[in-house]
Structure formats: C-alpha cells, structure tokens
Design brief:
By secondary structure, this protein is α+β, with helices and mostly antiparallel strands. The protein contains three helices and five strands. The strands form two sheets. The chain has a three-stranded antiparallel beta sheet with strand order 3-5-4. Strands 1-2 form a two-stranded antiparallel ribbon. Strand 4 and strand 5 form a beta hairpin. Helix 1 packs across helix 3.
C-alpha cells in the first residue's frame, strides 16, 4: 500500500510552487527598487511546503524564468520528476517546466 501523503498531487505541486513564486515576485520588486546587485537571494519554488531553501540568481536570470508561466526556479535536488522536467541547469539553480495538469494550473495561477 502506498502512502499518498508523500506524493503530492499535480494541483498541490502547482499551487505550492505558485506561492513561492509570489514571494519571489516581491523579492524581485524590492531588489529592483534598491538597484541591481550581481546576485539576489530568491526562495526555492519547489513543491515542498516546508522548503526554506534560498537560491542565488541575477534579476535578469529570474526575469527570464518568469517569461514562461510553466517555468520555476528550484534547487537541483528538489525537482519533482512526476510533474516537471528540467529545462535549464546552472551551478546555482535548476529551471523546471511544469507538465500536464500541473502546467495548466501554473498557467491559470499566473493569469489570475
């Protein structure tokens, strides 16, 4: 018997990542208002509700991730291969694309 509490649903994954994305949007706004530094500290946009990991990215790198509502910035070891695929990797973070229902929800949340 599998423990479904350990495997998040596609909807939960997308909503969790959207919440972290909203936090990063505020960070981006604050960083832009203070002037750009080489790297800013963003929160990992993974599906793990208890995640408190920080990632470093330039504001331009984060803006590039945000050009696609299905793309999220996460730690390399936080990729949820059931609901996303890696589209870009750096030494500081990974960009993932939400797939299937999770991707549809990510797009809907981005439009809201």
């Amino acid at each position: 018997m599998s423990d479904t509490r350990r495997v998040p649903s596609a909807a939960r994954v997308a909503r969790n990542e959207h919440l972290f994305r909203e936090v990063n949007e505020r960070i981006l706004e604050l960083e832009e208002s203070f002037g750009e530094r080489p790297l800013a500290s963003f929160v990992c946009e993974c599906s793990q509700v208890s995640c408190t990991s920080r990632l470093e990215a330039s504001l331009e790198e984060y803006r590039t991730v945000r050009t696609d509502p299905r793309h999220f910035i996460v730690r390399a070891d936080h990729v949820d291969r059931d609901h996303e695929r890696i589209v870009r990797e750096t030494e500081r973070f990974v960009v993932v694309e939400k797939l299937g229902l999770a991707g549809e929800i990510a797009e809907e949340e981005d439009e809201a």
